Amino acid sequence: MKVTLEHLTKIFPGRGRKSREQVVAVSDLTFEIPDGKLIGLLGPSGCGKSTALNLLCGLLKPTDGRIFFGEQDVTSLSPEKREVGMVFQNYALYPHLTVLQNILFPLQNLKGDKKLTKSEMQKKALDAAKLVQIENLLDRKPGELSGGQQQRVAIARALVKTPRILLMDEPLSNLDARLRLQTREEIRRIQKETKITTVFVTHDQEEAMSISDSIVVMKDGVVQQIGRPQEVYDDPCNLFVARFLGNPPVNLFRGSVRNEKLYIGEEPVMDMKGAEDQDVSVGIRPEGFILKEQGVLTCSLSGVEVMGRDVSVVASHACCLEQTIRAIVGSDTKIDLSNPVIRFDLKPEKVLVFNAQTEARLRVKDAASV
Ligand code: ADP
Ligand code: MG
After folding, report:
1. Pocket test for ligand 1, best of 15, 24, 50 (most atoms within 8 A of CB)
2. Mutation choice for ligand 1 from 12, 89, 216, CB with most ligand atoms inside 8 A
């Protein structure tokens, strides 16, 4: 089921005398979720992700804008009639019911021509349990399950009615690191098997990048960029998006464009054909550095961190906006730790330049190493 958001806006009124100020939780959300895809809605806490989900499922009414499931305008439809499955961070299972009863629950209130017989319900519940691989736990109570197992039950319960779309709000946040990884692979597998259009909300960039067909990056209720994860990482539209994606994060420097060259401090590091003179912020991805004796960027070497597969060179520079620079190089690279100075060449495609005031990306047609 294709989902379309058109100028979707939600404004919460200010409460009480002191906080009259209204909150624009989401503003003018406009995008399309293609049928059968998994979209990652990504952004820091408070940027409007949950509000957007609650608008999609009908728990909130928008202040403005419209929502379509396929060609149907569902904006004023009640949550029950939208046929969406919801999964939350805190599982929200009924503690006094068994796993099977929890999964059966949404089927028991179906009315009219949707009403099912007992055996039909049993079959659907069992199918959903099998899909999330908990068919051996059906007689347990939620309290007797691990966090990961509880979340599987919640997913089975969301899927049992075969929803038109599946909405997941930070479903992995309560799980420990290993389970988070495993469960996210599970969610991906289930989504691919069922082909249910899914919106997956998270504040964790790595999680969103790894699981999504496309990501929607939000800030302060406003969409910043939409695209395939790799595209958005490689080609961020502004400084916020560049900083939000990537681990270790992008290294940031104060810089300037002068005479069509990019400077960090007094060193010209890259050609910027066609760019006007201006102050800029320069983002260099950790994998964008090449160790070279006569390299264009001169830094002070602090040390190296060995991470097995590769090595992080830790350095500093007077124009760097953080205390340290992290450059990732291959584990076979020879680094002379007795030398306090280290120089790098830069991979032009890994150097992202932003106007210092607007923070918008400066696109240069033929950026090239000097
Ligand atoms: P996220 O899920 O990305 O952390 P939310 O969608 O929960 O963000 O919140 C977005 C903004 O809207 C926040 O500033 C939050 O304080 C505000 N907000 C959310 N729900 C309400 C509400 N019911 N009343 C007033 N403000 C709200
Ligand atoms: Mg939230």
Report:
1. 50
2. 12
**Please, which residues have CB less than 5 A from ligand 2, an ion?**
50
Would you say the CB of residue 45 lies under 6 angstroms from ligand 1?
Answer: yes
Q: Ligand 1 pocket, 48 CB below 6 A?
A: yes
- Give the whole-angstrom CA distance, residue 224 versus residue 220: 10
Report the amino acid identity of residue 99.
V
Q: Convert the pLDDT of each residue in 86-130 to its tens digit.
A: 999 888 899 999 999 999 999 998 888 888 999 999 999 999 999
Rounded to the nearest angstrom, the distance between the alpha carbon of 46 and the centre of ligand 2 is 7
pLDDT band of residue 19 (cuts 50, 70, 90) is low
Query: Of 3.40.50.2300, 3.40.50.300, 3.40.1350.10, 3.30.2130.30, which CATH number belongs to 3-243?
Result: 3.40.50.300
pLDDT digits (tens, 9 = 90+) for 297-353: 999 999 999 888 889 999 999 999 999 999 999 888 888 999 999 999 999 999 999
Determine if ligand 1 sits within 6 Å of the CB of residue 94: no
Residues 85 and 163: beta-carbon distance below 8 Å: yes
Q: Which amino acid is at 351?
A: V
- Is the Cβ–Cβ distance between 361 and 236 less than 8 Å? yes
Return the domain boundaries, the chain.
3-243, 249-369
Residue 201 CA to ligand 2 centre (angstroms): 8
What's this model's pTM, rounded to 2 decimal places?
Answer: 0.93
pLDDT of residue 355: 97
Backbone angles phi, psi at 88, to 5 degrees: -115, 170
Contacts of 154 (CB under 8 A, 6+ apart): 87, 88, 91, 92, 93, 171
Query: CA nearest 267: which of 285, 284, 247?
Result: 284
